[in-house]
Amino acid sequence: MNLLLSAAFVLCWSSGFIGAKLGAGSADAVTVLMWRFLPLAAVLGLVAVTLTRNAWRGLTARAVLRQAAIGVLSQSGYLLTVYYAIQLGVSSGTTALIDGTQPLVAGALAGPLLGQYVSRRQWLGLGLGVAGVALVTVADATAAATGTVESWAYAVPFLGMFSLVAATFLEGRSPTRTAPSVAMTIHCATSAVVFTVLAAAAGAAAPPAEASFWTAIAWLVVLATFGGYGLYWLVLRRSGVTEVNTLMFLMAPVTAVWGAAMFGEPFGVQTAAGLTVGLVAVTVVRRGTRGAGRPEGRVAGPAPAERAGARAGVQRAARGTAGGDHGRGRAS
Question: Can you tell me the distance from the alpha carbon of 101 to that of 86, in angstroms, rounded to the nearest whole number?
Fold first, then answer.
């Protein structure tokens, strides 16, 4: 089950980069994001007052504010930088590569912030992952040197990566567990407000009439949001932060394959080699996690059987018996 969830997560998360490229050709980034999240917020809001009302019971104002902050970081901040980078001319593969460096940052911070153990084998796997994604997109990164893309544009995806890291650890240090349906509703509603305000301020709120725009919106809502973002949090709740982080190393090569199929982007020996190295990295880290004397713990709030609170969650993580949540960090 975990393997199937991981594979689905990789495909759906990668679809977000492709969807961003689809939308970039017909509208500004804030326009695409506004119309991506407005219908989502409406549908999830309707579900919240009908089918999932029980999940909202007992939810405190503090918990709502925390989830809103997580939504701003993990959706609004992260996605805006990804879309803006692609709009500036950074390729979807290179954007995925930069996003793929997030596991190293999260892995380095997991120890001091969450007390999670990261083995030498896992660090080896993380290093292999970086090498794999670098092989896939190093050619695209040279665009900055040739002048086709401004060099500063490559810093934009890094801002999104750090935003997602911050969201991961903010969720991980939460004293209570919020139901995934509740968290996703708050995140999407928050992002809908943020992007609507930004689009209105930029005079870009009106959607274009092109069919390609609405195709991109449907793609992003179904695959990237419900699929990618939903699975991001689900997979992290079921697995440890370092192990799940390695899945992000597959995003760049998978995005490159998808880009080749949909947009005719080149896929050569270097891309194939990067994909292979990424798969090896995932294998190394997974084996390191299972074989370590102290397996890693969860990132986010405790699982249903572990609702004693933050203290119990930290103690379990230290012993390697807790599980983890989002998105990466390991969650479009």
Answer: 17
Which tokens belong to 219?
A: 């793609």
- Determine the Cα–Cα distance for residues 217 and 39; give it in Å rounded to an integer: 10
Q: How far apart are CA 54 and CA 189, in angstroms?
A: 19
Hey, what are 157's tokens?
């995806």
Q: What is the pLDDT of residues 181-216, one digit of tens each?
A: 898 899 999 999 999 999 999 999 999 988 889 999
Structure tokens, 154: 């490559």
The one-letter amino acid code at 149 reads V
Start-to-end Cα distance in the chain: 22
Q: At what angle do helices 156-172 and 102-114 cross, to 10 degrees?
A: 30
Q: Is the Cβ–Cβ distance between 109 and 328 less than 8 Å?
A: no
Say how far apart CA 257 and CA 11 lie, in whole Å.
11
Q: Structure pTM?
A: 0.72
**Measuring CA to CA, which residue among 282, 329, 322 is closest to residue 305?**
322
Distance CA 164, CA 42 (A): 24
Query: Cα 126 from chain centroid?
Result: 17
User: Phi and psi at residue 139, in whole multiples of 5°?
Assistant: -65, -40
d(Cα 330, Cα 282) in Å, to the nearest integer? 13
Please tell me the distance from the alpha carbon of residue 261 to that of residue 267, in angstroms, as a whole number: 9
CA 80 – CA 33 distance, rounded (Å): 8
Question: 138-196, pLDDT tens digit by residue?
Answer: 766 665 556 677 778 878 888 988 898 888 788 877 777 888 789 889 999 999 999 99
Interatomic CA distance for residues 203 and 161, integer angstroms: 27
CB 176 within 8 Å of CB 309: yes
Distance (Å, whole) CA 79 – CA 164? 9
Contact 92, 257 (CB under 8 A): no
Amino acid at the residue 130: V
Q: Confirm if 106 and 164 have CB atoms less than 8 A apart.
A: no
* 159/84 Cα distance (integer angstroms): 11
